[in-house]
Design goal:
225 residues, mainly alpha, Arc Repressor Mutant, subunit A, Four Helix Bundle (Hemerythrin (Met), subunit A), three-stranded antiparallel β-sheet
Length: 225
């Protein structure tokens, strides 16, 4: 069945998508900590959403490795591991470059306008050192670039990585990250895609991943007493 649409043609958000988005943000921003055990009933109460959409959202989060289903015990938020994150980045670098280049070639005019707006929001987050504005703009940029790239195989692969990457950033950025720099690198990527230059978009993606890998490796030193 086709998704319901709001005025102007925008697809209405389903209850399952709403539950997924809200639970993912709770996990990524550590409002639900790694190792915490939750239940469908508790999340339903927190979000005021029925248990069926919650269950479907949790199934998606399990595929993305943000939660682990424990038979007869509940749902556990997955732990964070630097080694796992570095292996993830090996794959993410190649996919992000492909997505950036493809999106630069294939984005619609409306998507290019939205990318410029995201770049402006990232610059504002950099100026205000605003972590939540950065996190939300980062998620929007990820999803928009995937949509603009029009490659369902890349979309499927990247969907398994974004939440884990954003959560790793959130737990460590106050120790070793430069949020304004990260926001400006994301803004540069958004503008490169919006500009339609595939080579520059690929280069901007590589610069961003260089920073993310350096940040990830720095967390190891930060954790040593």
């Amino acid at each position: 069945m086709a998704a319901r649409r709001r005025a102007g043609g925008e697809a209405a958000e389903s209850l399952t998508e709403k539950a997924y988005r809200q639970i993912e943000e709770l996990i990524v921003t550590l409002q639900i900590a790694p190792g915490a055990v939750v239940s469908e009933a508790s999340l339903s109460g927190i979000l005021a959403i029925g248990r069926t959409p919650i269950r479907e959202a949790l199934q998606r989060l399990a595929r993305e490795r943000l939660v682990v289903v424990l038979p007869r015990r509940g749902i556990m938020v997955s732990e964070i591991n630097v080694g796992t994150q570095l292996r993830l980045l090996e794959v993410r670098r190649e996919l992000e470059r492909l997505i950036a280049r493809s999106a630069a070639r294939r984005a619609s005019d409306g998507q290019r306008d939205r990318l410029r707006a995201i770049a402006a929001a990232m610059e504002q987050a950099a100026h205000g050192n605003d972590e939540m504005a950065f996190m939300r703009s980062d998620r929007e940029l990820n999803l928009l670039a995937l949509d603009a790239a029009r490659n369902e195989f890349a979309t499927g692969a990247m969907a398994l990585m974004h939440g884990l990457s954003r959560r790793f950033w959130y737990i460590h950025y106050k120790e070793v990250a430069d949020l304004p720099l990260a926001a400006r690198l994301h803004a540069s990527l958004a503008l490169a895609i919006a500009g339609g230059d595939a080579d520059e978009a690929g280069a901007a993606s590589d610069r961003l991943l260089d920073y993310i890998e350096a940040f990830t490796r720095a967390t190891v030193s930060a954790e040593v007493p």
